[in-house]
């Protein structure tokens, strides 16, 4: 099986390389046969990669220790589902999975049905195949998953206990999927720039891919936060770890890219910015890989030291330099269109503020992440930055982003808000101010809490106001039916606003859990009760269980409030026999008010146990926000049914209400008059 895998790896490399050549050169020179051969080579390459992935997965499932990779990351006692998750735990397996996912995405991008033929399809496929060839080269020459064990051991080293967690079954594949998806907007941007087709056409094709990539990577980041929260046993979910920062960076610039694409599509501005962000976002995906695989940065998430990370860093440098040169050459194609905005209080102004804020935050995260490694080049004492370094920029920047998010539904492209929108803007500001006052009286005087609560309520009121105004304009005599029509016809726009509300919910969870976080350590004996954070916590008993692969020591805690038992928590310590190491298994009582988080540290022969109790308010709001974001993205990406050809053309021009209304109607002259009147009246 290893021989078949090695042969298929080489076949995948040759196929991907020829596919890149055939699709790009065949399109450029107009050779249909060469282009077709390139497409076939790409299909063969992905099929060969599928065989390699299947061979390694089968070897992991059957515990075939003749594979060096299986011997390193699996064992006889490892459960089957974690044996398969070992596929993406190691250096070689994770690269193989990334390459396979990229190949599948390339095929979907090239062969998925479209309403109209695009000249970008084949060269875009060629660029994707070129990056796939790069990944396969790294796999073949630096991290071969088909390597044989020098002497097949009786048992393997097993999977790290920290990685034996449900979140790790899906977190790494989702992150790799996000990285692979960001390759598509990058490839389309390259083709549009080089070919001179730098119009809104590539935006219409690239925006859905960018939104999918942004959503997937965001879900991956949240799953990683959940893993850290439950598995590492320190009571938090984000510690500004270099590898954590690596996945955050392309998500930040990707957020800016999506908004830059909107400004181009609907206002004809920020064209150079959109192209630049497409290149930078993909470059930062490679930079994140450098952080993980170079060995320069110390992290629980990182792989061992290897030259692989430097290959990705070199590729990032080449891409950014080459992209800057192409942008300079093609700058005449990227002049703003449509004239200047007639008001500073318009959507493109908010988009510009958001992009600047996101790029500022990105620069700070890059600086903080690289500070330790760079400082060692010039001094024997490395500079280590803490959370305060990031928070000094994150807090004002985050509040700025929340404010722009809150105002967006009541603003329009190119022109200022209408009278109705101005009234609702004032109303949302008043609602936010009242909420801030109530928060100060009832919850906390902290300025960050007041600002976050006020902006959150203001965002909800602004969205409600935009929806009511939209409904009144569509059906003045039937406002309820008008709201329903607005949601149906403006589905894409309101799905975007729903994503904004999800981000507000995430921000509330972060602010609440950060400001209200408190913890205390206790030494307790069996039967003892302590009062803490409004709860009575009683140590019922200590247990120890001897399992096949581990020893489990646990403490059973009874949690009561107001004399009523609310929950029983069992924090534990696990001693893994194969790895000869302890891991912490926390127990959490989760409510909408917050999480009560318990950690068992150790026990003594006389029956005492050392425990830490942590209170993290509003944690559920963080996870809820992630769910709202995913729901909004799915609604936004759900295909729009079109009733006729004219509607299809209108929908292709953008997702504003004009296009949405046209896509939902059989277009007649009276319909067009109605739509023009709505648009000229300033429908947001």
Please, could you describe this protein's structure?
The protein has helices at residues 2-29, 32-61, 68-73, 80-85, 91-111, 121-142, 166-195, 200-231, 242-267, 271-293, 308-329, 347-375, 387-407, 419-442, 447-474, 479-489, 491-515, 619-637, 645-652, 657-663, 669-680; strands at residues 518-524, 529-532, 535-546, 550-561, 564-569, 572-576, 581-585, 587-590, 594-603, 609-617. The strands form two sheets. Strands 2, 3, 4, 5, 6 and 7 form a six-stranded antiparallel β-sheet that branches. Strands 1-10-9-8 form a four-stranded antiparallel β-sheet, covered by helices on one side. The chain is built from 21 helices and ten strands. The radius of gyration is 27 Å and the shape is globular. Helix 1 (2-29) runs antiparallel to helix 6. Among the domains are: 1-159, Four Helix Bundle (Hemerythrin (Met), subunit A) (Up-down Bundle); 518-620, no CATH class; 643-684, no CATH class. The model is unreliable at 642-684 (pLDDT under 50). By secondary structure, it is an alpha+beta fold.
Provide key terms for this protein:
disordered C terminus, 684 residues, Four Helix Bundle (Hemerythrin (Met), subunit A), single chain, 4-stranded antiparallel beta sheet, 63% helix, globular, 6-stranded antiparallel beta sheet, alpha+beta
Strand content: 5-15%
Helix count equals: 21
Class by helix and strand content? alpha+beta
- DSSP E strands, number: 10
Q: How would the global form be characterised?
A: globular
CATH topology of the domain at 1-159: Four Helix Bundle (Hemerythrin (Met), subunit A)
Distance between the termini: 60 Å
Averaging pLDDT over every residue, what do you get? 86
Tell me, what is the CATH class of the domain at 1-159? Mainly Alpha
Residue windows where pLDDT falls under 50 for at least 5 positions: 642-684
- Radius of gyration equals 27 Å
